[in-house]
Amino acid sequence: MTTHVKRSISFVFLFFVVNMFITNSKSITNGSNNINSVVYVCTGPKAEVYHSRSNCKGLSRCSGTIKKMTLSEAIEKKRRACKLCYKIK
Q: Where are the domains of the chain?
């Protein structure tokens, strides 16, 4: 293998590792990362996000009700972290 090919492979590998780290950290970055911590979800038909704050701007568009649950319950329901509540610092 040439040096150029090795560097390209290393760069691609590093990109995927960093991307995986960022993706995994988004879901637990803000506040407590305890699986039993309280989060808030919208019960609307298109809702797919959990929030760390009940007054999050993202919940203002909720067409259903806002339900309080644990982080583990939200993850079981295939919810992802709110980009407003769980910003990467």
A: 3-81
